[in-house]
Amino acid sequence: MLNRLDRLTSANYGMPIDTNLCENKFVKHKDKTIMLQAASIYTQGNGEKWDKKKMFDIMVDISKTSLKVLGSDIFNQITKAK
């Protein structure tokens, strides 16, 4: 029987835990490209409450990455040749 953490990581394409995964991954297979959207899973592993500063730093990093990806997508849409 898989434990809860194993089920979470397998549902997350086996991506690493405690890592900012806001940028989508693209996998090519034959003539197709598949986009994987994985959730960023953060854990301390000890069941204790998060340190507020540490959690804030993680959330700011994720927010900056999300805004960078969004800005890149908008830029690509604006500059796309018609």
Structural notes for this entry:
- The protein is an alpha+beta fold.
- The protein is built from 2 helices and 2 strands; from the N terminus they run H-E-E-H.
- The chain has a two-stranded antiparallel ribbon with strand order 1-2.
- The termini are far apart.
In terms of topology, how is this protein built?
Blueprint: H1 4-11, E1 25-29, E2 32-36, H2 52-79
What brief labels describe this structure?
single chain; about 80 residues; alpha+beta; two-stranded antiparallel sheet; about 10% strand
Separation, N- and C-terminal Cα atoms: 53 Å
Question: What is the residue-mean pLDDT, rounded to a whole number?
Answer: 84
**Helix segment count?**
2
Q: Strand-residue fraction?
A: 5-15%
Q: What is the β-strand count?
A: 2
| Helicity, as a percent range | 40-55%
Give the topology string: H per helix, E per strand. Answer: HEEH
The best one-word shape is: flat
SS class: alpha+beta
- Report low-confidence residues grouped into runs of 5 or more: none
Strand order, sheet with most strands: 1-2
Rg over CA atoms: 17 Å
Largest sheet: 2 strands, antiparallel
Provide a short characterization of the protein structure:
This protein is of the alpha+beta class. The protein contains two helices and two strands.
